[in-house]
Amino acid sequence: MSDEPTHDEGAAGGEAQRLLADAVDLARAAAVEEAGSDANPTEAAAAVGEHLCGVAEDGGAAYTHFFAATRPGYRGWRWAVTLAAGSAEDGTATVSEVVMLPGPDALVAPTWVPWQERVRPGDLGVGDLLPSPPDDARLVPGYVESDDPAVEEVALEVGLGRTRVLSRFGRTEAAARWQEGPRGPSAPIARSAPGVCGTCGFFVPLAGSLRGGFGVCANEFSPGDGAVVAVEYGCGAHSDVVVEPGSPVQVAALVYDDGVDLETVERPAAELEPADS
Protein backbone atom coordinates (compact mmCIF):
# COMPACT_ATOMS: atom_id res chain seq x y z
CA MET A 1 0.00 0.00 0.00
CA SER A 2 1.16 3.53 -0.69
CA ASP A 3 1.77 5.95 2.19
CA GLU A 4 0.94 8.94 0.00
CA PRO A 5 -2.23 10.79 1.13
CA THR A 6 -5.26 10.33 -1.06
CA HIS A 7 -6.97 13.24 -2.80
CA ASP A 8 -9.70 13.32 -0.18
CA GLU A 9 -7.17 13.31 2.67
CA GLY A 10 -5.16 16.11 1.09
CA ALA A 11 -8.25 18.20 0.52
CA ALA A 12 -9.38 17.63 4.09
CA GLY A 13 -5.95 18.64 5.42
CA GLY A 14 -5.94 21.82 3.37
CA GLU A 15 -9.43 22.69 4.51
CA ALA A 16 -8.48 22.12 8.16
CA GLN A 17 -5.42 24.33 7.80
CA ARG A 18 -7.50 27.12 6.28
CA LEU A 19 -9.95 26.74 9.14
CA LEU A 20 -7.17 27.14 11.70
CA ALA A 21 -5.58 30.06 9.84
CA ASP A 22 -8.88 31.94 9.78
CA ALA A 23 -9.57 31.40 13.50
CA VAL A 24 -7.81 34.62 14.52
CA ASP A 25 -10.66 35.77 16.73
CA LEU A 26 -10.68 32.45 18.60
CA ALA A 27 -6.94 32.70 19.19
CA ARG A 28 -7.21 36.31 20.37
CA ALA A 29 -10.01 35.44 22.78
CA ALA A 30 -7.87 32.66 24.24
CA ALA A 31 -4.94 35.06 24.71
CA VAL A 32 -7.17 37.64 26.39
CA GLU A 33 -8.56 34.97 28.70
CA GLU A 34 -5.05 33.92 29.68
CA ALA A 35 -4.03 37.56 30.26
CA GLY A 36 -7.10 38.01 32.46
CA SER A 37 -5.91 35.40 34.94
CA ASP A 38 -4.06 38.15 36.83
CA ALA A 39 -5.74 41.32 35.51
CA ASN A 40 -9.18 42.82 35.07
CA PRO A 41 -11.00 42.41 31.72
CA THR A 42 -10.04 45.86 30.48
CA GLU A 43 -6.35 45.35 31.20
CA ALA A 44 -6.47 41.83 29.76
CA ALA A 45 -7.90 43.05 26.46
CA ALA A 46 -5.26 45.79 26.28
CA ALA A 47 -2.47 43.29 26.97
CA VAL A 48 -3.04 41.50 23.64
CA GLY A 49 -1.95 43.60 20.67
CA GLU A 50 -2.16 43.20 16.92
CA HIS A 51 -2.01 39.89 15.10
CA LEU A 52 1.56 39.41 13.89
CA CYS A 53 1.58 36.16 11.92
CA GLY A 54 0.54 32.54 11.87
CA VAL A 55 2.60 29.38 11.41
CA ALA A 56 1.34 25.92 10.47
CA GLU A 57 2.77 23.04 12.51
CA ASP A 58 2.68 19.23 12.49
CA GLY A 59 1.92 19.06 8.79
CA GLY A 60 -1.08 21.36 9.07
CA ALA A 61 -2.73 19.57 12.00
CA ALA A 62 -1.91 22.52 14.27
CA TYR A 63 -1.60 26.24 13.72
CA THR A 64 -0.02 28.89 15.97
CA HIS A 65 -1.14 32.52 15.93
CA PHE A 66 1.19 35.21 17.27
CA PHE A 67 -0.04 38.47 18.82
CA ALA A 68 1.99 41.40 20.11
CA ALA A 69 2.25 41.59 23.89
CA THR A 70 1.56 45.13 25.05
CA ARG A 71 1.78 44.45 28.77
CA PRO A 72 4.32 46.75 30.51
CA GLY A 73 7.67 45.08 31.06
CA TYR A 74 7.26 42.62 28.16
CA ARG A 75 8.74 44.60 25.31
CA GLY A 76 9.29 42.37 22.28
CA TRP A 77 7.32 39.44 23.71
CA ARG A 78 4.50 37.72 21.82
CA TRP A 79 1.39 35.77 22.70
CA ALA A 80 1.52 32.37 21.00
CA VAL A 81 -1.84 30.57 20.69
CA THR A 82 -1.75 27.08 19.20
CA LEU A 83 -4.98 25.75 17.66
CA ALA A 84 -5.83 22.23 16.60
CA ALA A 85 -8.53 21.11 14.19
CA GLY A 86 -11.39 19.08 15.55
CA SER A 87 -12.97 16.14 13.77
CA ALA A 88 -13.70 16.35 10.08
CA GLU A 89 -17.43 16.23 10.78
CA ASP A 90 -17.78 19.29 13.03
CA GLY A 91 -15.17 21.50 11.30
CA THR A 92 -14.21 23.38 14.46
CA ALA A 93 -10.92 24.54 15.97
CA THR A 94 -9.88 24.07 19.56
CA VAL A 95 -7.28 25.86 21.65
CA SER A 96 -4.34 23.65 22.57
CA GLU A 97 -1.93 26.04 24.27
CA VAL A 98 -1.50 29.71 25.16
CA VAL A 99 1.95 30.97 26.15
CA MET A 100 4.08 34.09 25.97
CA LEU A 101 7.31 33.74 23.99
CA PRO A 102 10.19 36.20 23.56
CA GLY A 103 10.63 37.72 20.12
CA PRO A 104 13.91 38.62 18.40
CA ASP A 105 14.16 41.96 20.24
CA ALA A 106 12.56 40.86 23.50
CA LEU A 107 13.89 42.00 26.84
CA VAL A 108 14.97 38.76 28.52
CA ALA A 109 17.18 37.79 31.41
CA PRO A 110 20.81 36.98 30.58
CA THR A 111 21.86 33.38 30.13
CA TRP A 112 22.41 31.71 33.48
CA VAL A 113 26.06 31.13 34.30
CA PRO A 114 27.24 28.93 37.21
CA TRP A 115 28.62 30.84 40.18
CA GLN A 116 32.16 29.53 39.79
CA GLU A 117 32.22 30.84 36.22
CA ARG A 118 30.86 34.27 37.14
CA VAL A 119 33.66 35.18 39.55
CA ARG A 120 36.13 37.64 38.05
CA PRO A 121 39.43 39.08 39.30
CA GLY A 122 38.72 41.80 41.82
CA ASP A 123 35.37 40.36 42.97
CA LEU A 124 36.77 38.93 46.21
CA GLY A 125 36.07 41.19 49.16
CA VAL A 126 36.57 41.25 52.91
CA GLY A 127 35.21 38.07 54.47
CA ASP A 128 34.58 36.35 51.11
CA LEU A 129 35.75 32.77 50.58
CA LEU A 130 36.82 31.37 47.21
CA PRO A 131 37.87 27.71 47.55
CA SER A 132 40.01 26.13 44.85
CA PRO A 133 38.49 22.99 43.32
CA PRO A 134 40.23 19.70 44.13
CA ASP A 135 41.10 19.21 40.46
CA ASP A 136 42.48 22.73 39.95
CA ALA A 137 45.03 22.44 37.13
CA ARG A 138 47.02 25.33 38.60
CA LEU A 139 47.96 23.28 41.67
CA VAL A 140 49.71 19.98 42.35
CA PRO A 141 50.35 18.12 45.62
CA GLY A 142 53.18 19.69 47.60
CA TYR A 143 54.62 16.52 49.10
CA VAL A 144 53.64 13.08 50.34
CA GLU A 145 52.92 13.05 54.06
CA SER A 146 55.10 10.82 56.20
CA ASP A 147 54.37 8.89 59.36
CA ASP A 148 57.73 9.90 60.78
CA PRO A 149 57.42 13.09 62.91
CA ALA A 150 61.07 13.92 62.27
CA VAL A 151 60.47 13.97 58.51
CA GLU A 152 57.45 16.22 58.97
CA GLU A 153 59.47 18.71 61.03
CA VAL A 154 62.22 18.85 58.40
CA ALA A 155 59.63 19.30 55.66
CA LEU A 156 58.18 22.30 57.44
CA GLU A 157 61.63 23.81 57.98
CA VAL A 158 62.56 23.66 54.28
CA GLY A 159 59.20 25.03 53.16
CA LEU A 160 57.48 21.80 52.14
CA GLY A 161 54.59 22.22 54.55
CA ARG A 162 52.09 23.30 51.90
CA THR A 163 49.53 20.73 50.85
CA ARG A 164 49.48 22.00 47.27
CA VAL A 165 51.93 24.08 45.28
CA LEU A 166 51.85 25.85 41.94
CA SER A 167 51.99 23.50 38.96
CA ARG A 168 53.83 24.07 35.70
CA PHE A 169 50.53 25.07 34.12
CA GLY A 170 49.85 27.49 36.97
CA ARG A 171 53.25 29.12 36.60
CA THR A 172 52.90 29.43 32.84
CA GLU A 173 49.42 30.91 33.17
CA ALA A 174 50.55 33.43 35.78
CA ALA A 175 53.62 34.42 33.75
CA ALA A 176 51.49 35.05 30.65
CA ARG A 177 48.99 37.10 32.65
CA TRP A 178 51.70 39.24 34.25
CA GLN A 179 53.56 39.68 30.98
CA GLU A 180 50.46 40.93 29.18
CA GLY A 181 49.07 42.86 32.15
CA PRO A 182 49.39 46.50 33.22
CA ARG A 183 52.90 45.89 34.63
CA GLY A 184 54.28 44.19 31.58
CA PRO A 185 56.54 45.53 28.82
CA SER A 186 53.59 46.63 26.67
CA ALA A 187 52.24 49.09 29.25
CA PRO A 188 52.31 52.73 28.06
CA ILE A 189 54.42 53.82 31.04
CA ALA A 190 56.94 51.08 30.28
CA ARG A 191 57.33 52.12 26.65
CA SER A 192 58.24 55.66 27.68
CA ALA A 193 60.45 54.72 30.65
CA PRO A 194 64.19 55.56 30.62
CA GLY A 195 65.08 52.01 31.74
CA VAL A 196 63.65 48.60 32.54
CA CYS A 197 63.07 47.00 35.93
CA GLY A 198 65.70 44.35 35.30
CA THR A 199 68.40 47.02 35.64
CA CYS A 200 66.77 48.94 38.50
CA GLY A 201 68.13 48.82 42.03
CA PHE A 202 64.62 48.65 43.48
CA PHE A 203 63.86 45.41 41.62
CA VAL A 204 63.64 42.31 43.84
CA PRO A 205 63.65 39.13 41.69
CA LEU A 206 61.25 36.32 42.47
CA ALA A 207 62.56 32.96 43.58
CA GLY A 208 62.31 29.79 41.56
CA SER A 209 61.65 29.37 37.86
CA LEU A 210 60.00 32.81 37.57
CA ARG A 211 63.14 34.60 38.73
CA GLY A 212 64.37 35.37 35.24
CA GLY A 213 61.19 37.11 34.16
CA PHE A 214 59.57 38.78 37.15
CA GLY A 215 60.20 40.45 40.46
CA VAL A 216 58.69 42.83 42.99
CA CYS A 217 59.14 46.59 42.92
CA ALA A 218 60.41 48.10 46.18
CA ASN A 219 60.25 51.79 45.23
CA GLU A 220 57.46 53.50 47.16
CA PHE A 221 57.22 56.24 44.53
CA SER A 222 56.75 53.82 41.65
CA PRO A 223 53.26 52.81 40.42
CA GLY A 224 54.43 49.20 40.69
CA ASP A 225 55.49 49.38 44.34
CA GLY A 226 54.76 46.11 46.15
CA ALA A 227 53.49 44.38 43.01
CA VAL A 228 54.91 41.80 40.62
CA VAL A 229 56.52 43.50 37.62
CA ALA A 230 58.14 42.09 34.51
CA VAL A 231 61.87 42.57 34.04
CA GLU A 232 61.08 44.57 30.88
CA TYR A 233 58.59 46.81 32.66
CA GLY A 234 59.75 50.28 33.62
CA CYS A 235 58.74 53.68 34.90
CA GLY A 236 60.21 57.11 35.53
CA ALA A 237 61.37 56.14 39.04
CA HIS A 238 64.27 53.99 37.78
CA SER A 239 67.23 54.01 40.18
CA ASP A 240 69.63 55.15 37.44
CA VAL A 241 67.62 58.18 36.37
CA VAL A 242 69.77 61.35 36.55
CA VAL A 243 68.36 64.80 35.95
CA GLU A 244 70.79 67.56 34.92
CA PRO A 245 70.69 70.44 37.44
CA GLY A 246 69.51 73.75 36.05
CA SER A 247 69.31 77.34 37.26
CA PRO A 248 66.20 78.13 39.28
CA VAL A 249 66.15 81.57 37.59
CA GLN A 250 65.37 81.74 33.93
CA VAL A 251 68.35 83.24 32.09
CA ALA A 252 67.82 85.07 28.83
CA ALA A 253 69.94 84.10 25.89
CA LEU A 254 73.09 86.23 25.46
CA VAL A 255 73.33 88.48 22.43
CA TYR A 256 76.77 89.07 20.89
CA ASP A 257 77.46 92.09 18.65
CA ASP A 258 80.84 90.99 17.33
CA GLY A 259 79.19 89.65 14.25
CA VAL A 260 77.75 93.06 13.24
CA ASP A 261 79.49 94.88 10.34
CA LEU A 262 79.91 98.64 10.87
CA GLU A 263 80.15 101.01 7.91
CA THR A 264 81.74 104.53 8.28
CA VAL A 265 79.78 107.35 6.58
CA GLU A 266 81.24 110.92 6.26
CA ARG A 267 79.04 113.79 7.26
CA PRO A 268 78.26 116.39 4.57
CA ALA A 269 80.33 119.65 4.63
CA ALA A 270 77.24 121.75 5.23
CA GLU A 271 76.69 120.04 8.52
CA LEU A 272 80.32 120.71 9.56
CA GLU A 273 80.13 124.60 9.10
CA PRO A 274 79.45 126.54 12.35
CA ALA A 275 76.15 128.29 12.62
CA ASP A 276 75.98 132.12 12.31
CA SER A 277 76.44 133.91 15.60
Automatic annotation (TrEMBL):
Question: InterPro entries given for it?
Answer: DUF3027
Q: Name one Pfam family in it.
A: DUF3027
What is this protein's name?
DUF3027 domain-containing protein
* Organism of provenance: Pseudonocardia dioxanivorans (strain ATCC 55486 / DSM 44775 / JCM 13855 / CB1190)
> Which lineage?
Bacteria, Bacillati, Actinomycetota, Actinomycetes, Pseudonocardiales
